[in-house]
Prior knowledge:
It is a single chain. The chain is mostly helical. It has one domain (23-93). The chain contains five helices and no strands. It has helices spanning 7-20, 25-38, 47-50, 58-69, 79-93. Helix 2 (25-38) packs across helix 4 (58-69). The radius of gyration is 17 Å and the shape is elongated. The N and C termini lie far apart (62 Å).
Amino acid sequence: MMEFIDFQNLVHQANEKTRKHFITAEARDLGNKLIFEFGITEHDDLADFLKVNSSLNGQRAVRAWAQTQLSLLDSDETEYERYRQLRRLFQQTLQDFI
C-alpha cells in the first residue's frame, strides 16, 4: 500500500521556511547601499548587533535587518529619502560599532 503524501501541507511548510528568510528587492537594494557605504564585508559579525538571525554573515545580516526596518520608513518618500531614513536607523543601531 502506498503512503499518502499531503502535498498542500508540504508546500505550506516549504513556504513558511522560505518566507522566514525572504528579502524583498527593496530591502536588498537598500541593504546593498548600506553595505557599500559602510564597507561591510561578508565576514563582519553584525547579526547580534542588528538583532537578526545569528547565522547570517555581515552582508546578509544587513539585508535581513533592512527588511525588518522597511515598515518604519515613509512609504510616500523618494528612494533616496527612504535610504537616508534607513541609514539613520542603521547608525543609531550600530552607534557603538561604527
